[in-house]
Design a protein that fits this description.
alpha/beta; 4-stranded parallel beta sheet
Length: 207
């Protein structure tokens, strides 16, 4: 998993509440188990017409937001089914941080496991930040995870809270597998000890 320490980029406003995971990545794209290639299907029904052409009024089809790495949205973002393809699609598109007043629990947890930082800020703060997203390519935003602060295009710093363990995992690029592999020496020692002390538990080698 790619570490997340500091992110600088464009923020796109998605002024919608209750954006569910089917809106983020429709069900017909759930057949794949690959984490790449889903960015083109992100918000598919909102971004594209039936013939595949872009809908020009959708924010991520507009400049400069089609290059956004930060998404600012309404409350209860990521509700609906628990599909992990939703953060996969956001990440493949280039979104590394989602800012909203609230998130669905499973989506929130899945973000951390896939290298996306979901930031929960007060609704009035989110509304204020959303209003600042219309500055064009020159509007650079910064999300500093180490200092736990969002810096908007005006230079205003907005502090945020985050669980210490989740912060550690994001900054070091540790998903569940990465955390397990950190204990590789202890796992190997346990397996060697079990084989020596209880050989009958070790599967016989294939003849």
């Amino acid at each position: 998993m790619q570490p997340f320490k500091q992110l600088t980029g464009i923020a796109a406003p998605l002024d919608l509440m209750n954006v569910d995971t089917d809106m983020i990545i429709p069900k017909q794209y759930l057949k794949t188990i690959q984490r790449t290639g889903l960015g083109k299907a992100l918000f598919d029904e909102m971004r594209h017409n039936e013939d595949g052409t872009e809908k020009p009024d959708f924010v991520l089809n507009q400049e400069p937001y089609r290059h956004a790495s930060i998404l600012i949205a309404g409350e209860n973002f990521g509700c609906g089914s628990s599909r992990e393809h939703a953060p996969w699609a956001l990440l493949d598109f280039g979104i590394r941080c989602v800012i909203a007043p609230s998130f669905a629990d499973i989506f929130y947890n899945n973000c951390f496991k896939n290298g996306i930082l979901p930031l929960q800020l007060p609704e009035e703060t989110v509304r204020r930040l959303m209003a600042k997203c219309d500055r064009g390519h020159n509007a650079q935003w910064s999300v500093d995870l180490e200092r736990q602060a969002v810096v908007d295009p005006d230079g205003e710093e907005i502090p945020f809270e985050i669980d210490g363990f989740r912060k550690h995992c994001l900054m070091n690029g540790l998903d569940d597998i990465g955390l397990t592999l950190q204990k590789g020496d202890k796992i190997a020692a346990y397996e060697q000890g079990r084989q020596a002390n209880k050989p009958w538990l070790t599967p016989a080698a294939a003849e």
